[in-house]
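Notes for week 9. Today we move from apo structures to complexes. The key idea is that a small molecule is not decoration. When we ask for a structure prediction with zinc ion present, the ligand SMILES becomes part of the input, just like the chain. The input block below holds both the sequence and the ligand string. Read it once before you look at the output, and try to guess where the molecule might sit.
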Amino acid sequence: MTFDEQVAYYETHPPKCIEQFQAVAIPAPDIPIDGHAGDNINTFWLLRCSCGNESFFLHGYDYYAPNYGMVFISPLHAQCTSCNGKTLLLDTDKHGYDPVAVGGPVSTYHGLTEDGAAPALCNCNRCRAEKFQLTVRFEFSSDNFDYPIDELIGREADLFSWTSVIGSCDTCGFEDVLAEFECA
Ligand SMILES: [Zn+2]
Ligand SMILES: [Zn+2]
């Protein structure tokens, strides 16, 4: 599959972890994101609740990582501010290249296993409000189709190597990366 064919594939195949949302593929927002070096493919999905609303609370875990500082870690749930429906958005122990293709180990801190991790609601770095329009970004290595593993054929969209949750604050409009994970 050529690079452009892969871009077209990933932009029409959302990863399983966001399939409960009416996610819409959008162009890259103008915001710096972290990722692997090289020719990767990045997709960006604006989340819409099944009720049609595009405003969410983002639930996750605050964790003070030794030698690093405060991080906001998974499992992440998005809660619709209109219908209150709460949906799992990302669990770094289950979603992404390492858990899906390798079966672990997962290098990222996890809210349910890290000592001292506490459930928390994400808030805006500028105004502290808690409602966001959410865009989820997935990075894919351009060689995912080159070495097919039988049981992973058709699951290429779940083999993302990095993911970011980008929030646009409903209150002040500030756009920021709310959470980011290396997954491979
Ligand atoms: Zn809703
Ligand atoms: Zn704000």
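The first helix runs from residue 3 to 12.
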